[in-house]
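Running this now, will post back.
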Amino acid sequence: MIDLQNVSKAYAAGTPAVNNMNIHIDKGEFVFIVGDSGAGKSTLIKLLLKELEPTSGKIVINGKNLQKLRRKKVPMLRRDIGVVFQDFRLLKDRNVYDNVAFAQIVVEAPKALIKRRVPAMLSMVGLAEKYKSYPHELSGGEQQRVAIARALVNDPPILLADEPTGNLDAKNTWETMRLLEEINRRGTTVIVVTHDREVVETMKKRVITIRDGHIVSDEGEGGYSDED
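Update: finished.
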């Protein structure tokens, strides 16, 4: 599903943000990627989304070699990866229904499909009754669930969540993580980039720990690296 082979990314000055990184993630896995600020997590996300090009190495996602992918094919790559951000990134002037529908409009989905998929996704995240609400009328947890519904409405095989609980309280943090776990059980490959040690250690999933651009541990059902 996702393969990084000897991937490095160096900026104009300084040491590489990602240094000789090798990662293999199978279809249907749930993986945490952890590390302190500056470890290389943000650069890794941008490499996976082809927002950045690696200085060296090879990245393959869903059978696509990103280095050989033509620019006009990048939108198709990104349809395979639903992304959820810490700050939700909802459209403030649109209601819940329209925020989720927007992701389908962008890919020119038929209106009949939009009318079917959007309510189904809102039901899955427990917000069917709030479809007319605007982002400012929702709690942080509800906004994050809208963001998850939007990320999943086009049925991507991969969900990438970048610090999805960073702006949430404890209750909403665990509701969000339970939702991501349910999404994973349905077959979606879930990758969560986080620094939330309690979440990582409680959920007992695979954990890849990054420090200074290097992978320092890759544990099957562990927590943070003992070196942390």
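DSSP finds seven helices and ten strands in the chain. More later if anyone needs it.
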